[in-house]
Amino acid sequence: MRILLDANILFSAARADGAIRQFLALTEAAGHELWADAYVFEEARRNLAVKTPDSLPVLEAMAARIKIGGLRAGGTPLPETMVLPEKDRPVLAAAIHHRCDILVTGDRTHFGVLYGKTIRGVTVMSPAMLAEVVLG
Length: 136
Known about the structure:
Blueprint: E1 2-5, H1 7-15, H2 19-29, E2 33-37, H3 38-51, H4 56-63, E3 67-69, H5 89-97, E4 102-104, H6 108-111, E5 118-119, E6 122-125, H7 127-135
Parallel strand pairs: 1-2, 1-4, 2-3, 4-6
Antiparallel strand pairs: 5-6
Helix pairs in contact: 1-2, 1-3, 1-4
């Protein structure tokens, strides 16, 4: 599977050697492709620089293992009825553009209504939902 990681997932994995980082390592070891869009990666980098700058080297090490793609100019259009705030639309658009199977995000506030739904081939999941799929 090709899995796009939202900024909050990257942030959590870089910030602490906890469940998210370990889960991503297991997911990668199981042969799944981990992706991040440049837009998402930069958001994680900015947040880490402000909150825990000591974590930046961990994020950079992660960048060497995951695929980071750039969203083409104009982005991938989303359905007109999409309920996402403007700042979150590029995240789902990137998952569609990079032909990911899953977008994993811990942002329940903005993406929670989409958890379990498939939009243009991308299923939006929480980390717990993804764990059920990957770890069975």
